[in-house]
Amino acid sequence: MKNWADKIKKNLNFHHKSDLTDACNIDLNAVAEQLALQDKAETAALNQLPAQNAISPDGNEREVHSYFETRMANINRIVNDGLSFRNTSITDTNLQDERALINNHTEHSKLAVKSLMAREFRLLKHLKTDLDAIRQEFHHFQAQHHLQRTPHYPDSQLLYIAIALVFWLLESIGNGYFFAEGSELGLLGGIGQAIIIAAINISSAFLLMGWLFRYKNHRAVGKQIAAYLGFIIYLLCTLGFNLLVAHYREFFALQPEAAGNLAVQRFIESPWHLSEFNSWILFVMGLLFSVFAFIDGYKREDAYPGYGKLHRRLQQLHEEYEEHRDAIVEQVEEIRQDFLHKLEEMKQAVLLKHTRLVHLVEDKQAFVAEYEQGIANFTAAANALIYRYRDMNMRARQTPPPRYFSEDWYSNNHFVIRGAQDDIALVEQQKQLFEDFPQYCQQRANEIEKLYVQFLQQLQLIDPDFKPVNTDAKLAQDHA
Length: 480
Description:
By secondary structure, the chain is mainly α. The chain has helices spanning 4-9, 19-23, 28-35, 37-46, 59-92, 95-144, 158-179, 187-212, 221-254, 259-269, 277-299, 307-396, 424-462, 471-479.
């Protein structure tokens, strides 16, 4: 008699608990108690059963057979379901998919760069043509006017315009104070008229003379003379205008309706005859604000007429060109870095996928081995219980047992497992793809780098002064 209990103890050690582990678990004593083997063996022995000449197991043994064949059919169903799932996972773990993804991503990135180059380079060329034209115009202007210095003008004219508005506001308030005496509305009414007077006084100095007097620096003598003549005329007009305002203020306090005509008449007859001190203050204040506005308007631009304006056009177009050029470079660099980043991600994905494939195949092999061990254990367990039944029967009976009591039991059912192939060929194929993958990735990366170099070369044909930044070094520095 074979020691089947010892056979059952020789179980395989698996890496982890599978669906079969619990289904293959056997407790011989519990099964013996469940099947009431001792009672059935003693009862059969009292009746001297099975008969000495019996050639096939009795019903009690067949009950043990049926119990274990049911357990075997159950783990056979579990193993077939598990193998179907594992084979699907192994099939899905195909590195060829990653190669196709990388190839699609490469073509997509190349198309994005080529489309961007075709679209943006046209506009960049137009901007470069305009920039070269205005730069040539600027250098011609410098040569024509013998200018060696760079233009000097404020970064923004808003400050100077704001100052002029402040002068206008202050003069309006000051004029309003002096005109308040003749207005029915007091200070507010005086300011209403003073605003118009201050606007004429300030705007003519800020806009007209600030522009005209720069021609004193012009290379052409005729324009210099015109500038000085204009300045003299402006001074006379400013004096006359502010004197007329002072006369108007004196009559406005006495006869508001006829103040204009009376002021003009006395200005013609006796321009310097002002009878009130406040009128002289109004006259001086108007001159001072006019001078301040004139200086403010003169300093808001380069001293040489047209030089600052032309330089601003050049600077504006240069900034627009550089901004557009840098935006193109940044977009192409983003496409390049995004491709390289995804390539690294795919390398890691392939490594994990290959590791997963190996683990899946190992798990499948262990799963099949566990099933085979389970079938063997069930056979051993069934024989252990059968021999226990026979031993108890022989001890209780008086006649010799049948000959088959010394024979082992084996199931006549053929339990088929589907998809239990070892997958060695698949693993070898995927291993070759895994080993070739770095070279394949490098080839795809070289295609993008080649296109990137072509982009930089074409960009330097448009802009020979452009110096590409070593982005890889910059990125390494940023991450340091």
